[in-house]
């Protein structure tokens, strides 16, 4: 049922709004197993119903033969004492047994299982969150609705299609968020698939109802009028469309009259109420950020590229790395971003993931005003925190970071493990606290975040890069590697070129773990310089 409200003289469909929510890949794989169990239970129920019907069918066939014979000579049939007895027995006992069989509910087991599993089902928030993730991917990776609907995504193993109902639902989610740009795109896709003959429970009238209003909201009055007329051709009695038609014609008449008085030539120009806008979650740096996510970033000049090297690093003659030095690669020069290859083993990754999975919860960020952790719409992932004393592997990784960076990890934050699933991202941000955020890490008492160490614990089929919009750098996930950069200059001033983002995962699953190292304890490990930007 679509409820209606009146805005600017126009009746429009209204849906309930739900806040954004995110489900991790780990949780969704659990749901896959849950659904598999339910399918098995459903098949058992179907088999039980089939067995029940088979019993009833055999009983009916037996009685059909018996009654066919009896009705040919009723008196002669019941004249036989055995037949008379069996007739009394059937009508008094066997038909009651059949009644009980017919009334027997074979669904108890299935319904019981469904009731138990339902507590783990996603809710409206999860569904809306998944829809928003698709819209986010659509924008970031410049995908058209037809490509997404046909499942033609890079790196996919299991191709999947969107039905008319699916496209309609995506359009409704966008509509609920007052995102009329995406509402138009997905309602048009639903309409195209209906025009191509796809059978659906959604009719064109419902699609055109949303589409015409979304187009009107973006200022294209001519198209809105055309779509409304098309709707009325299908349903001449549609109350809202009839009201909108009168309103649109009234507005257009006023526009033409105003244009004519201003200039005769302007009367033929397209009527627009307002310019078509961009997505509702637009960021000032969004264009550059999305280009980097697509691999369309700034190309480094050959002169700068020549200054990037691969090398073996022994952690400044650290005994652990003299015989087996770490493999280092320069990813970027300013800020200096270094990648360490083969720095975390598959076994270590599995242990870290196993420790984190039971604790995964919505990732948080530091609120600059309160200094406390809070969730934010621009960070969409699941995370967990692991302490070194919990497991020898976590302690070993902490020491490895200290040995290779030369920084004291005793004042660092705990190892944070993050899982980015469908559309998971972390929009452009700084890891360090700026001057207008003096209390960001006050509770920790360890100063600002001097550096960031980031382990990549999975490969990603498509998307999921770490990008630096200020300088145009893109660092792509590679399992078993880690990247490191300083957030602060040696002077203690913040390096604003380290503003970075985690691009949405287009296809696949992204696991990372990061260590934020703080200023306290680094006084002699990384001495201050006199120059502010050194």
Automatic annotation (TrEMBL):
Subcellular location: Endoplasmic reticulum lumen
GO cellular component, as recorded: endoplasmic reticulum; endoplasmic reticulum lumen; mitochondrion
Ranges for domain Fe2OG dioxygenase: 411-519
Highest taxon, organism lineage: Eukaryota
Pfam families: 2OG-FeII_Oxy_3, P4Ha_N, TPR_P4H
InterPro entries: Oxoglu/Fe-dep_dioxygenase_dom, P4H_N, P4HA-like, Pro_4_hyd_alph, Pro_4_hyd_alph_FE2OG_OXY, TPR-like_helical_dom_sf, TPR_P4H, TPR_rpt
Cofactor section: L-ascorbate
GO BP terms, alphabetized: collagen fibril organization
Primary location group: endoplasmic reticulum
Signal peptide limits: 1-17
E.C. designation(s): 1.14.11.2
TPR repeat segments: 205-238
Keywords in alphabetical order: Dioxygenase, Endoplasmic reticulum, Glycoprotein, Iron, Metal-binding, Oxidoreductase, Signal, TPR repeat, Vitamin C
Subunit comment: Heterotetramer of two alpha-1 chains and two beta chains (P4HB)(the beta chain is the multi-functional PDI), where P4HB plays the role of a structural subunit; this tetramer catalyzes the formation of 4-hydroxyproline in collagen.
UniProt function note: Catalyzes the post-translational formation of 4-hydroxyproline in -Xaa-Pro-Gly- sequences in collagens and other proteins.
Protein family according to the UniProt entry: Belongs to the P4HA family.
Protein name (Swiss-Prot/TrEMBL): Prolyl 4-hydroxylase subunit alpha-1
Organism annotation: Sus scrofa (Pig)
Lineage of the organism: Eukaryota, Metazoa, Chordata, Craniata, Vertebrata
């Amino acid at each position: 049922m679509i409820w209606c409200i009146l805005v600017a003289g126009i009746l429009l469909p209204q849906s309930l709004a739900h806040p954004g929510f995110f489900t991790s890949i780990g949780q969704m794989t659990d749901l896959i197993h849950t659904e598999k169990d339910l399918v098995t239970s459903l098949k058992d129920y179907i088999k039980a119903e089939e067995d029940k019907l088979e019993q009833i069918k055999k009983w009916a066939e037996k009685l059909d033969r018996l009654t066919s014979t009896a009705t040919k000579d009723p008196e002669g049939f019941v004249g036989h004492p055995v037949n008379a007895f069996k007739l009394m027995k059937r009508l008094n006992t066997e038909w009651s047994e059949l009644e009980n069989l017919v009334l027997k509910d074979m669904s108890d087991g299935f319904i019981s299982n469904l009731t138990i599993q339902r507590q783990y089902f996603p809710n409206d928030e999860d569904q809306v969150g998944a829809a928003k993730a698709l819209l986010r991917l659509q924008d970031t990776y410049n995908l058209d609705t037809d490509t997404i609907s046909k499942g033609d995504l890079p790196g996919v193993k299991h191709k999947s299609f969107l039905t008319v109902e699916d496209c309609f639902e995506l359009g409704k989610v966008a509509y609920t968020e007052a995102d009329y740009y995406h509402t138009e795109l997905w309602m048009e896709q639903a309409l195209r698939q209906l025009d191509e003959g796809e059978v659906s429970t959604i009719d064109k009238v419902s699609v055109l109802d949303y589409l015409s209003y979304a187009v009107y909201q973006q200022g294209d009055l001519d198209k809105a009028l055309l779509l409304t007329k098309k709707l009325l051709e299908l349903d001449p009695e549609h109350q809202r469309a009839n009201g909108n038609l009168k309103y649109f014609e009234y507005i257009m008449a006023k526009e033409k009259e105003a244009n004519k008085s201003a200039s005769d030539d302007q009367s033929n120009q397209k009527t627009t109420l307002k310019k078509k806008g961009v997505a509702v979650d637009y960021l000032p740096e969004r264009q550059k950020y999305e280009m980097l996510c697509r691999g369309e970033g700034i190309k480094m000049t050959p002169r700068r590229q020549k200054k990037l090297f691969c090398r073996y690093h022994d952690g400044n003659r650290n005994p652990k790395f003299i015989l087996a030095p770490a493999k280092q690669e320069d990813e970027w020069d300013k800020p200096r971003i270094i990648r360490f290859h083969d720095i975390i083993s598959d076994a270590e990754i599995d242990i870290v993931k196993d420790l984190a999975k039971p604790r995964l919860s919505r990732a948080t960020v530091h609120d600059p005003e309160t200094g406390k952790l809070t969730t934010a719409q621009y960070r969409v992932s699941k995370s967990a925190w692991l302490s070194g004393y919990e497991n020898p592997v976590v302690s070993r990784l902490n020491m490895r970071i200290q040995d290779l960076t030369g920084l004291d990890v005793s004042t660092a934050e705990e190892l944070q493990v993050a899982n980015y699933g469908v559309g998971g991202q972390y929009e452009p941000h700084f890891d360090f606290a700026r001057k207008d955020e003096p209390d960001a890490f006050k509770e920790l008492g360890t100063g600002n975040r001097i550096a960031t160490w980031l382990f990549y614990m999975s490969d990603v089929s498509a998307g999921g890069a770490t990008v630096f919009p200020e300088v145009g750098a893109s660092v792509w996930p590679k399992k078993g590697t880690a990247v490191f950069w300083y957030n602060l200059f040696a002077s203690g001033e913040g390096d604003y070129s380290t503003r970075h983002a985690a691009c949405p995962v287009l296809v696949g699953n992204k696991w990372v773990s990061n260590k934020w190292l703080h200023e306290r304890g680094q006084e002699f490990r990384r001495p201050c310089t006199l120059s502010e930007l050194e």
